[in-house]
Amino acid sequence: MKKLTGKSFYPFMNKHEEYQISDNWIISKRGRKNSVNSEKPYAFLVEKERTFSGEIEDTSVIFLTNKECPYHCLMCDLWKNTTDKPVPVGAIPTQIEWALKQMPQVKHLKLYNSGSFFDEGAIPVEDYPRIADLVKNFETVIVESHEKLIENKCLEFRDMLKPELEVAIGLETANPEILQKLNKKTTLFNFEESIQFLTKHRIRSRAFMLFPLPFLSESKNLYWAKKTIDYAFSVGVGTCVVIPTRTGNGAMNVLLKNGDFRLPDISFLEKIHEYGIGLNAGNIFVDVWDLDKLPGCQKCKDQRISRLNFMNLNQQIGERIECECNF
Ligand code: SF4
Ligand SMILES: [Zn+2]
C-alpha cells in the first residue's frame, strides 16, 4: 500500500479500482467542461422558497459563469460550467444585468457562482459596487462561499448592499473523518468560526449538507445526516439545505462502481426532512433537482418528490406515501 501523504490523501483498495483521493486523482477522473460564455450566466431560473419569516416567495437564481473553484472536492461537479482563467472585470455585472432583464422582478436573489463569491479569482472585488447597484431592488441576496474565504471582504460587500446578505456554506457533514475524505481541505472548526463571524456581523447563514455520504452504510448515513442537521443549527446556521449526492463528475462514478457510494434513496431523504422539520430550529430544505432520474420505485417517485416539495415550502411534515415499496 502506498503511503499517506497528507490529510486529504486516503487510500482505498477494492476489487474494481485502487484509488487514493487527492486533487490529482479527482481531476484525472473528470470529463470535458461545457462550453461557457463569460458574458452570460450558464443558467438562471425563478423558484419558490419559504423565507425566514414564513412566506412562500419567488426567488431568482443566477448561475454565474466564472473561474473554476480552487478546491477540488470529491463530490463536486460544478467545475463543468466554469472557465479555466478569471473572467475580466465587468463580466460578472454584465451577466447579472443580462439575466435580470430576462426574469420577473422578485424579492429575493441567489447569486451562485460554482465556487465562492468571495474568491477574488472568481468575482473581482472591483465588481462589487456595480453588483450592489444591480441588485439594489431585492430584499435578500444569497451568495455561496467556502468557509475559509469568509472574512472582511464579506463585510465590505455587505456594506455596499441595500438588500440583506445571506451566505451559504457547504458544511457537507459533521462527521470529521468523512469531511477529510471529501478533500474539502477544511475542518468543523473552520466551519464554526465562519458561522460565528457571520452571526457576529448579523449576516444570515445557510449550510449545504450532503446525503448520502460515501464510505458509510445506509444506517450510518441516516445517523450522520441527523447529527449534521443538529450540529448546523447548534452552531447558529439559519437554514439547512440537504443536497442529494450525485454521480457524473467522474470520481463519484468510480466510488459508485466500487461500492463505496450509493445513490440517494428518496424515502431516506423524506426521513431526514421530517427529522429536520421536527426540530423546529430553522428552515430545512431538500434539493429536489434531478431526483426523478434516481433509480428506485417508479410507482411512488413523483409523489415522494411532491411531498418533499410540499415540506420545503410549508416546513410541515406532509402526509406519508403508502406504496408497496414501503412494506
Ligand atoms: S468548495 Fe464548493 S465549488 Fe469548490 S470544489 Fe468544493 S464543492 Fe465544488
Ligand atoms: Zn413505491
Descriptive notes:
The protein has ten helices and ten strands. With 327 residues, it is of the alpha/beta class. It has one domain (21-317): Alpha-Beta Barrel (TIM Barrel), CATH 3.20.20.70. The strands form two sheets. It has an eight-stranded mixed sheet with strand order 3-4-5-6-7-8-9-10. Iron/sulfur cluster is lined by residues 69, 71-73, 76, 78, 114-115, 146, 170, 184.
Topology:
Elements: E1 10-12, E2 19-21, H1 23-28, E3 43-50, E4 56-63, H2 91-102, E5 108-112, H3 128-134, E6 140-144, H4 152-160, E7 164-172, H5 176-181, H6 188-200, E8 204-211, H7 218-234, E9 239-244, H8 251-258, H9 266-279, E10 283-286, H10 301-314
Parallel strand pairs: 4-5, 5-6, 6-7, 7-8, 8-9, 9-10
Antiparallel strand pairs: 1-2, 3-4
This protein binds iron/sulfur cluster (SF4) and zinc ion.
Zinc ion (ZN) binds next to loops.
